[in-house]
Amino acid sequence: MRSLRELARFASKVTAAYPTAAGSLASGNSSIAPAASLLQRRVGITMSAPAAVDVDAYKVGDSTNIKWHEGSVDTATREKAMNQKGCVLWFTGLSGSGKSTVAYTLEHALFQRGKVAQVLDGDNIRHGLNSNLGFSAEDREENIRRIGEVSKLFADSGMITLVSFISPYRKDRDQVRARVGDKFVEVYMKIPLEVCEQRDPKGLYKAARAGKIKGFTGIDDPYEEPLDAEIVMEVAKEGGDGTLAPPEKMAAAIIEILEQKGFLSA
Amino acid sequence: MRSLRELARFASKVTAAYPTAAGSLASGNSSIAPAASLLQRRVGITMSAPAAVDVDAYKVGDSTNIKWHEGSVDTATREKAMNQKGCVLWFTGLSGSGKSTVAYTLEHALFQRGKVAQVLDGDNIRHGLNSNLGFSAEDREENIRRIGEVSKLFADSGMITLVSFISPYRKDRDQVRARVGDKFVEVYMKIPLEVCEQRDPKGLYKAARAGKIKGFTGIDDPYEEPLDAEIVMEVAKEGGDGTLAPPEKMAAAIIEILEQKGFLSA
Questions:
Q1: Which residues cross the membrane (chains A, B) (predicted)?
Q2: Taking all residues of chain B, what is their mean pLDDT, rounded to a whole number?
Q3: Among partner residues A43, A81, A248, which is closest to B230 by beta-carbon distance?
Q4: For chain B, what is the domain count?
């Protein structure tokens, strides 16, 4: 947890330096709305360029040992502060294979380690960003494309981004991989159809078998297995009882791998 | 910077507790790929459900004083750890009004204070998520809708999200406001057209006046001013020289407001 302490120390340093800026602002000739008006909803600020400006955020930045890119925070600096590297863990697998369960458990476990992680899944994407998409082949492709772009934005901001969608087509996943680049980690939940169908936590397989859902992955629509997933989660074939490991255990295994791949430090 | 220290302390605590989980994993009966194979691209993990599993992430979580939602990190917990509240600062204004400059300067200044902020602007959205949109009325509306949804995802993950797009139509901005809710803060860069046109940093006004760009906001397409923006940045009319304040100064002013609105602590 060295990085968090470092960040705290670093932040204290700049806070100590920062009041200068805030102070000079108050004593400058710009007119800032008084504190009382902040209770109102709207705040108007009139800003003119005074003759002598001694507020210089970059100068404050330079007084630390971190090099700033003018006007933006570069990826390395951001990652150093968060002591992690932004990445996309792309969970793919059949419905009922445990993608979301493992992703949320992993998000939780990472947070416990002081890491910043976020799950993107059907709950927060299909009802929002992709609410105007249906389930045609074209819309499914666009669904995955948008999710890929959003996951890239999250990863570029330093987040460990956990993406959980069936994403059945290899071509769509590979396009995301190409866009996201080195920080893309495909996690294939390789759970046999019969195990997923037996679990059927949402009753979807039953509905699909009854013909109530058309084009269901694994039933009347294909699932194209990843050929080169970075992480493959399998049910034990020999010596095991054929059931799934608890999600905490899978999450812990993925954390080990993330650590060794260097994503949990910067 | 109290929160970062707290986070560091908190993180140390769970790290101390966590090795138990990692240790039990190694001694469990699951087969983890040895470290050497991690140098290879693909990692296969076979997970079975052992008879006695003593890895319980939730148990570890319970040993701290923070209440966990099973399998996910709730917003309050996330915000408490980051000592900030996720929000969307929506910068709107004419081309050349300084939206992106102020947004990036603010991102920088927030980062210096140990906050996690991220700018979403044309550079990272139009070429990615919205690369399949044009400039028709319909596409412009969808452009802002998607940006709004992504900014909501970022804010929900605890980020201070800085959004910089002209977003000329009131209806589109109001729809985002309705979606994002209380954490939406509209920042209107109220800079007169003549000032923006004189600055013309990208030469776009010149091109629009020459008829080389059609439907340009402020020239042959309307800009609908916000009626109830939370923050309005104006050029000084009296006593000022009519030019813009330096971005560092505007950013410092916005930080004061964010602080008073309670977004910089949790």
A1: none
A2: 78
A3: A43
A4: 2
